[in-house]
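Researcher: I'd like a candidate sequence for this fold, 215 residues long. If you have to choose between options at a position, lean toward the conservative one.
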């Protein structure tokens, strides 16, 4: 089983770029879950880095929104559960995934300028799905990675936010988890481009989420 990591641009002039979260003006977030229903509508659960007021305002003015619920968790994360009509571009992408029997690997990372999606399946199916992309979409999409899909590793990483994964990758790259340790929290913060206190807090939460899975 193989996977492809694809990046789609989010540009104001492109509906395709905003296809995964149309109507929401956010800089960072995570699409945690998504279901394409038989009636052609879509339900999504997103974790967003945005203010509640701005998200509610966007949802209120979004013509394709059917219903939504905005709520906070105990650790301060903002979540949105929404039921909507997908754009025609997103609907076509989901049909391609279904047609080629592929798996969308959640969560999906939502950035200020791009949406990063990983899909998994048989090598031939992935190749055929790329050939099946609409011309406009194929011209904009960027292939980031191709590799062997490891369900155990990917399931553990999916428990983290996109920012936590960035900090974890930085910690591994600089040697924070090497034996013996060859880097400090200062090195991690510099690599992740954040404050030392932020890096330390992220690593504490990462360890709290991942270590119980190993016991």
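Model: Candidate sequence:
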């Amino acid at each position: 089983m193989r996977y492809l990591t694809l990046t789609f641009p989010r540009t104001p002039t492109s509906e395709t770029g905003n296809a995964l979260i149309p109507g929401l003006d956010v800089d960072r977030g995570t699409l945690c879950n998504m279901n394409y229903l038989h009636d052609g509508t879509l339900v999504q659960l997103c974790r967003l880095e945005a203010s509640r007021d701005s998200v509610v305002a966007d949802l209120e003015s979004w013509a394709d929104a059917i219903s939504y619920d905005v709520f906070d968790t105990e650790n301060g994360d903002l979540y949105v559960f929404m039921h909507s009509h997908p754009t025609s571009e997103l609907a076509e992408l989901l049909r391609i995934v279904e047609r080629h029997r592929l798996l969308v690997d959640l969560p999906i990372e939502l950035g200020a300028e791009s949406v990063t999606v990983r899909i998994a399946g048989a090598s031939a199916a992935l190749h055929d799905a790329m050939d099946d992309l609409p011309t406009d979409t194929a011209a904009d999409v960027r292939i980031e990675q191709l590799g062997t899909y490891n369900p155990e590793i990917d399931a553990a990483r999916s428990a983290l936010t996109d920012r936590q994964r960035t900090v974890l990758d930085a910690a591994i790259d600089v040697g924070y988890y090497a034996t013996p340790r060859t880097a400090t929290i200062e090195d991690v913060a510099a690599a992740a481009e954040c404050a030392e206190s932020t890096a330390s807090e992220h690593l504490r939460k990462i360890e709290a989420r991942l270590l119980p899975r190993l016991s």
